[in-house]
């Protein structure tokens, strides 16, 4: 079984000729079965042999990122060709450098031309709008003022307070340009304050324009500000610079204005033609990049990864041979040797790579062969910790126990079916959905088979609970119970038993064939019965799950030949757990099987109690408080007092059994020079504390550790058993939430909308539709999302804490082979 234990690993040494080193690493990266060990940990990245090549790859990576940004900006990114293996690294570097220089030049020319065009467009708007300002002023001025004014003095008529008899006239100047709309108000206010009101501003909106400085679209206004004096002009110019207002010359003569408009229009036409030609050239360059970008990224990714691995190899003094060490699965050794032979032939090296096995200095990495189904469950286990090399893997049983415990808390036929549809959707369309780039969905998609198993088990437990959206089902026939009415009468129709008690079973019939009898739904004692059943069921499942964990520990101890831990840990642990809580689980099952007619009057005669009604709470309390005696009300079988006394004695003996023998035996072995050193024993074993591996033997340390281990197990047996009651709590919460949503949301609206006198109206249909919509949203949002996540987390805790801590060390490290398949373009 591939998952039961990790693959056996072999440490190898590779002696690679320098001329074949690159091709050798590439061949090993193709097969992806070798994990290299860094032999240069004492060197920084800049002191490594191939640091120069890595820098070259980093520079080429920067260029490729720049190319990718430019291509994505234009929306030209395409899949392109595969990995470019024919072009050498030097040729690729020269090609990328040339393309970068060409693209930068094209971009610079394009930006400069666009800037010139934007400036000309703004100048054109200034000429157009400012010209209208002056034309409106000329049309509005009085004819006698025009005759009195000088022909060249265009500013005098614009002054509202101009007087005909004024002897001294100050010449008024003006400045025109464009300013952003959002800055116009502050711009005008500052102009007014700076000039103390000695200015006049005229502006007009021109819409969105490309700003020459930033290249962004900005809402702008054309303005003309009139002033008097050169000092005021200097102030206005500085204010324009502060607010990013672009100023442009505006001639006073009308003829000169028309000439400038003509020149600007012609220059704009020429610039448009030049820009179109430049854009065609830039588009051709970007198309070339888009067609080859994928291949270049793949090639550079491979080269960069190859040089990083080559930097892990040590170089001999002659620099002719590279020595490397690596971990390889034993089953893959022949494939690795074939890859080395292929690399030697491709590189035309005179000598081949030498591969020789080594004795490992440290623990090997852990490697499990997984598939699409088991990968999700293996990820759940490894989220707690990677398995120690060759120890038992919990995911073998987690594939079944995890979805089953989830389903115990989430059991509902309808909810399980909805989850099954979602899981089947992801499984059937896994090829298309596997390409979705979203972290949350990738996590969900990776566990699609986990969700599939959880949905199947939820459907199964829903059949056991006989619930579908909180409604009872009758797939296996009608009920075997009758409903008790007043006195000794019974109701003929079991559906009339809402709110009454079920106390009589039809004589001569068998119990309900599968799962819970549907008649319990809606009765007075429904919660009493289902709570008792589910609570006891949780205890039974918990004890079985913990027993499985302890049994798995013996497989580790046998494999690592740790006989001392088998006799001094496994045996007392299994005895202690089952003498107390295993006995409780036995009594639960025995009581279920003892008397199916426990509700009938006691046929044993007066003065006696039916054994089917024994109170297990009192039995467990009296087991410790009154050993050797059994209350008649709690007697289940003959000789119960003697059995309980033996079990209690076994439980008390198991505690010092776990505590004392192992440290004493280890001390004895240390004194006699016969120390046992298991190769992979559990925590607290002789190798860890016997001094055979590290330092001298310390009996005090071993004793303290064993004491902690014993106390942890004894207290953990109690707390872990109680922890499994979360199965009961979660399934009760899920069931009651389903009932609330069904009765208080859906059925309440249906009852309010149903009026036999009025019949089915538009209003009642609308009410039912709204009620069903609220019910559906509550079911999906609360039960299918929040409740499923809660059950998932609780099942995760039960496996990590209550199950895996019985045997799982989780202190290994994962086998991560050097493989090109593990790299993507995002790794550049």
UniProtKB/TrEMBL annotation:
Its main location: membrane. It is found in: Membrane. Residues 82-116 form a coiled coil. It comes from the Eukaryota. It is a multi-pass membrane protein. The chain crosses the membrane at residues 404-428, 449-466, 537-555, 567-590, 641-660, 765-786. Residues 670-689 are annotated as: Disordered. InterPro entries: V-ATPase_116kDa_su (IPR002490), V-type_ATPase_116kDa_su_euka (IPR026028). Keywords: Coiled coil, Hydrogen ion transport, Ion transport, Membrane, Transmembrane, Transmembrane helix, Transport. One of its GO terms (molecular function) is proton-transporting ATPase activity, rotational mechanism. Belongs to the V-ATPase 116 kDa subunit family. Essential component of the vacuolar proton pump (V-ATPase), a multimeric enzyme that catalyzes the translocation of protons across the membranes. Required for assembly and activity of the V-ATPase. This is V-type proton ATPase subunit a. It comes from Ostreobium quekettii.
């Amino acid at each position: 079984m591939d998952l039961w234990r990790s693959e056996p690993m072999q440490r190898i040494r590779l002696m690679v000729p320098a001329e074949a080193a690159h091709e050798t690493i590439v061949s090993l990266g193709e097969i992806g079965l070798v994990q290299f060990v860094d032999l240069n940990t004492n060197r920084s990245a800049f002191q490594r042999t191939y640091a120069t090549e890595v820098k070259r790859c980093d520079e080429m990576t920067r260029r490729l990122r720049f190319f990718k940004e430019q291509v994505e900006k234009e929306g030209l990114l395409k899949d392109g060709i595969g990995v470019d293996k024919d072009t050498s690294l030097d040729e690729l570097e020269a090609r990328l450098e040339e393309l970068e220089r060409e693209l930068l030049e094209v971009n610079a020319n394009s930006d400069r031309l666009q800037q010139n065009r934007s400036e000309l467009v703004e100048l054109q708007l200034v000429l157009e709008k400012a010209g209208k300002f002056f034309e409106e002023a000329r049309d509005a001025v009085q004819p006698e003022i025009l005759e009195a004014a000088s022909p060249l003095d265009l500013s005098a008529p614009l002054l509202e307070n101009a007087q005909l008899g004024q002897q001294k006239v100050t010449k008024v100047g003006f400045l025109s340009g464009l300013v952003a709309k959002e800055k116009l108000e502050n711009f005008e206010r500052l102009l007014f304050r700076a000039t103390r009101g000695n200015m006049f501003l005229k502006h007009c909106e021109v819409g969105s324009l490309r700003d020459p400085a930033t290249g962004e679209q900005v809402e702008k206004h054309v303005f003309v500000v009139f002033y008097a004096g050169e000092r005021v002009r200097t102030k206005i110019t500085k204010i324009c610079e502060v607010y990013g207002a672009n100023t442009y010359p505006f001639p006073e003569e009308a003829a000169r204005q028309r000439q400038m408009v003509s020149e600007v229009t012609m220059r704009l036409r020429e610039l448009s033609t030049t820009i179109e030609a430049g854009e065609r050239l830039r588009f051709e360059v970007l198309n070339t990049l888009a067609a080859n970008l994928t291949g270049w990224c793949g090639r550079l990714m491979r080269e960069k990864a190859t040089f990083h691995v080559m930097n892990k190899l040590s170089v001999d003094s002659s620099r002719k041979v590279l020595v490397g060490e690596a971990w390889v699965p034993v089953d893959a050794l022949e494939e690795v040797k074939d890859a080395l032979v292929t690399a030697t032939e491709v590189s035309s090296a005179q000598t081949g790579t030498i591969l020789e096995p080594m004795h490992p200095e440290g623990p090997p990495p852990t490697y499990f062969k997984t598939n699409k189904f088991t990968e999700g469950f293996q990820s759940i286990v490894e989220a707690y910790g990677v398995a120690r090399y060759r120890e038992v893997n919990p995911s073998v049983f987690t594939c079944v126990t995890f979805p089953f415990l989830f389903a115990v808390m989430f059991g509902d036929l309808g909810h399980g079916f909805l989850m099954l549809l979602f899981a089947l959707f992801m499984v059937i369309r896994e090829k298309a959905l596997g390409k979705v780039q979203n972290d949350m969905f990738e996590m969900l998609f990776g566990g699609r088979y986990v969700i599939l198993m959880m949905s199947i088990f939820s459907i199964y437990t829903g059949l056991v609970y006989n619930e579908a959206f909180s409604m009872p089902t009758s797939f296996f026939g009608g009920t075997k119970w009758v409903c008790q009415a007043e006195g000794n009468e019974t109701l003929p129709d079991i559906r009339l038993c809402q709110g009454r008690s079920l106390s009589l079973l039809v004589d001569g019939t068998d119990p309900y064939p599968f799962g819970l009898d549907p008649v319990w739904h809606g009765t007075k004692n429904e919660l009493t019965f289902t709570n008792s059943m589910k609570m006891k069921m949780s205890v039974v499942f918990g004890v079985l799950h913990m027993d499985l964990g302890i049994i798995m520990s013996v497989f580790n101890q046998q494999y690592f030949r740790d006989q001392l831990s088998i006799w001094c840990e496994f045996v007392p642990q299994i005895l202690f757990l089952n003498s107390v809580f295993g006995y409780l689980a036995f009594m639960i099952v025995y009581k279920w099987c003892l008397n199916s007619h426990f509700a009938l009057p006691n046929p044993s005669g007066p003065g006696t109690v039916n054994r089917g009604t024994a109170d297990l709470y009192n039995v467990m309390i009296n087991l410790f408080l009154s050993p050797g005696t059994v209350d008649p009300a709690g007697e289940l079988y003959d000789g119960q007092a003697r059995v309980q006394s033996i079990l209690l004695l076994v439980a008390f003996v198991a505690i010092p059994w776990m505590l004392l023998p192992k440290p004493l035996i280890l001390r004895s072995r240390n004194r006699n020079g016969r120390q046992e050193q298991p190769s992979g024993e559990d925590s607290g074993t002789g190798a860890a504390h016997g001094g055979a591996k590290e330092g001298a033997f310390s009996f005090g340390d071993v004793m303290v550790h064993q004491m902690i281990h014993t106390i942890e197990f004894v207290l953990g047996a109690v707390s872990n058993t109680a922890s499994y009651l979360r199965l009961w709590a979660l399934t009760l919460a899920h069931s009651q939430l389903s009932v609330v949503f069904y009765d208080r949301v859906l059925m309440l609206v249906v009852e309010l909308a149903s009026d036999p006198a009025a019949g089915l109206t538009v209003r009642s249909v609308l009410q039912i539709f709204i009620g069903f919509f609220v019910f559906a949203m509550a079911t999906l949002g609360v039960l299918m999302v929040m409740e499923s996540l809660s059950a998932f987390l609780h099942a995760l805790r039960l496996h990590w804490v209550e199950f895996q801590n019985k045997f799982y060390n989780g202190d290994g490290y994962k086998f991560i082979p050097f493989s090109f398949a593990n790299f993507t373009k995002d790794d550049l």
